[in-house]
Amino acid sequence: MSFDRLIHKIVETQNPTVAGLDPKLEYIPNYILEKNFKEYGCNLRGASRAILEYNEALIDALCDIVPAVKPQCAYYEMFSYYGMKTLCKTIEYTKSKGMYVIIDGKRNDIGTTMEAYAVAHLGATKVLDDEMEAFGGDALTVNGYLGTDGIAPLIPYCNERDKGIFVLCKTSNKSSGELQDKLVDGKPVYRIMGDMCENWGKAAMGSLGYSAVGAVVGATYPEQLAELRSAMPHTFFLVPGYGAQGGGAKDVMGAFDAKGLGAIVNSSRGILCAWQKEGCDERDFAQAARREALRMKQDITQHFENGIHL
To answer: Has 297 been annotated as catalytic?
Structure first.
């Protein structure tokens, strides 16, 4: 099962973190921008090529210490089809380095439309007698608030193609409680969604105790994070909100099980902008990202008395 592969990568690197590849042009060193604008034009194509060069350097610097990356689709879509090509190339390059890829698309629809999303991001598109992967992610973030109709089309891809999904459950944003904390028959909506994730996962269980139906649970709500870990023993968590959004290492501890497993914590801006925060030479941006990734790893794993183990 897909999350079994992710867990093995986490154990191998002793690092339960994922680098969010959410690039903005202001994050990219000027020398990369100038080079690509000169070659391809100061336009959407040139910007997309600069992002790809930036991403590949980051992946090279992180691939032996960080188990996974999480590109957010919106940061690529804004550059038109050039940006989507960069997303494809980024995923391809990441996988060539042995890293796990979580596509952050938060897709949400029903029936054949949701199946089309599954084909695009987790499956293979059939063209006459051939099948080929469009994006080739290992996992996809999805919105479960259309209910089972929006999740059921994804389950066959999890089982047959060794893929995973992360369903929005208790998100890290400030206004999440406007809906997710509302009580229905005395239970918060996020708990109801958590129960649904556990139930959906029964049809796609892995060998290490977690199903292919994961959940997005934010570090900015540590009490709810711990509550959901207890209530969702078979659901693997993707944990945003560490760092730039205010969550710290102690806040994410409730996401993990007794073996130091059960969750992967995301950092995007903290890693992408590490060179700017350090004030180092812009040509050292990738190594600055590596230093930040190692700092984050130490910050979190120092709280695991027995390390991370199967």
So the answer is: no
